[in-house]
Every structure is written in structure tokens, then in C-alpha cells.
Fold each of these.
Amino acid sequence: MKAQVKTLDGGVTKSIDLPEIFSEEYRPDLIKKAVMALQSTRRQPHGTYPFAGICSSAVGWGSGRGSSHVPRLKNGSRAAKVPQAKGGREAHPPKVEKVLIKDINQKEKQKAFRSAVAASVNEELVKGRGHLYEGAVPVVIEDKFETISLTKDVITALTTAGVYNDIVRAKDSKKVRAGRGKMRGRRYKQRKSLLIVTAEKPLLAARNLAGVDVVTVDQLNVEHLAPGTQAGRLTVWTESALVRLEGR
């Protein structure tokens, strides 16, 4: 499988062979499992106060009074402590000791990563995610792209490469979340657009573009390539990044 290396002004310098990893079979089941395992590591333990609802003087009256044996307050007859009582304990409250992290085998994780990389050159999957672009995938740009320090220069390079319309699509998708999360620091939702993969250091000039993620090859993981467990993300590589990808 070959790919054309584009210049910053939209020309083509040469054609290169893609690493063998791009020929991996598509395994959506493993990709989903790997992404879910990765996301589970970000969950925070949550639980209630262990003595909530049972800090009370209530004790049962025992037999012989024609009443049920539920604990009752000392200065009255109202039931307490038990789940069915007002202000009583919760029957099965969330506990901090619950295991939230999902495990995945190392070989499954590696195969999921290779499969997600290969899915990024499958035009049917890329278009199925809603990405907009011109030309063919993958999009490979010369190494000068990594040295750009101004966002306007990044926009120019991505426009000539035929992928900037996808960033516009992501920018137009921003909307207020429909739900309680809008009051909990998750007010806006926005689509993902490009993934820019470089060799040495992330392309910081592109980090503020709508929906764009910028990573190096060493930072790249399956969630970058398959946000929301859906593989086929439109990815922009530099030539050096593809060379370093062979060593992973």
C-alpha cells in the first residue's frame, strides 16, 4: 500500500510505502474493548458515607406489643435505620471499593491498536464517521509541517491538503448539551475532526482548532484513533511519524 507525501503548498514530493501495520484486519470488537478499558482508568471512585442513615438511637420494641420488629426512635414510635424507613439507610449504596477499571489482555490491546491504525486508511469507515476531505487517505505531509509555529500557517497547510473542511464541520457542530451535565462542567458538545500525528513533538499550533487532537507517535493510543469506540478517524501523518510508527 502506497501514499503520496504532500508539500505545505499542496504539491506532491514523492510516493512512499506504508508500514505493514496498515494492512491489519479490521476488528471492531477488539477496538471497542480497548477503548472502554482505556476510558475506565479515568473513572473516579464514588461512594456514600458508610454510616449514613444508621446514626440513630432506634432499637426494636421486640414481641408482645402488636408492632413489627423494625428499629424505632427512643423518643417516639417512628421507624428508623432500615431502608423502608424515612431517613433510613440506603439498601445498596455505591461503594468506593467497587472495581471500576476494565482489564484487557496485552495482545488484544496491541491488536486493537494495529486494527485502529489500519481502519484510518479505510475510506468507507472514514466517511462513515462523517469526515469531510478531498483526495485519498491517509493524508501524509512533509516533515516541515512539524516546524509550523503559527495557527494560520497550519490552517493554510491543511486547506491545501484538502482536510480543513472537516475542522469547519466540527466547529459548526458545537452545541449546548441536552441534560443535567450542562451544569457540571460539560456544557458543550462538539464533534471530533482531525488527528494530527507527528514524530518528535506535538504540533501545538493546531491544538486550538475545533475537534483537533495533536499527538506524537509515542503518545498515540486506540482512543485517539477511534473516539467513542468508532474507528476510521481522519488522520494527518508526517513522513517521519510513519517511519517511527514501524517501530511500535
Amino acid sequence: MQLTHIRLLVANFSECFRFYRDVLGLLLNIGDENGPYASFSVGGAEIALFSRDAMAEAVGTSALLSVAEAKDKAAIMIAVSDVDAAYHAVVARGGMFVNPPFDQLQWMVRYAHLRDPEGNLIELNMEMSA
């Protein structure tokens, strides 16, 4: 088996597309703002967006209700060389963070969190020097 990418199922495709392309500044591989599918390069990995309705149709769950929960079930982790520089660059492009960069000394990691337009949690992180 080989993991090829992470696919986020989104309700507002064009808004999420612009967020990953324009706010996070990821490199577009395929697709456009009109959807229903697009993928972006993140280092050696990919993040793909797919219309939630199109996926529900494909798997036969269109008639089911969407259920939102209060706590996150997953997070996208993106390693950067400088969390503070990445934070300021994303803020300058309109990103809004859940928290500013901070150190987690127990794990020797500096990170900051933000959400995409669908509420998916994204962590920008870097290892700290000992």
C-alpha cells in the first residue's frame, strides 16, 4: 500500500480552493476554483480538495445529514523552516490563526494553528534546537 494524498471533502469548494492556493500559498497540481476537484503540493505530499456533495454522490450517501462535532478529528501538519515567518506570510495573505506561534518545550516543537474555510485544523510547525 502507498498513501497518495489527503483529500478534504468540502462544502464551499471555491473558498477552500482560494485558501489553499492564495492564503497558504500551496502549489496547484490540478484543478481550478470551479471544482469539484483540485490538488496541491506540500513538500513531498499532496492535499486534495473534493466537493463533499460529489463524494457523497459517489459513495451513495447523498441523502444523509452532515453532522458537525465540537472537537477536531484530524489535523493537517505542515513542517516549515520558520514558523514565525510562515505565520506572518499567511496573515499577510488573509489567514486567521487560532493561536500565534508558540513553543511546546516538552516536544521541542514551535507551532501555530489555523483553520481553513471549512474548519479543518492546520498546524504549521518546526523542530526547535536543543
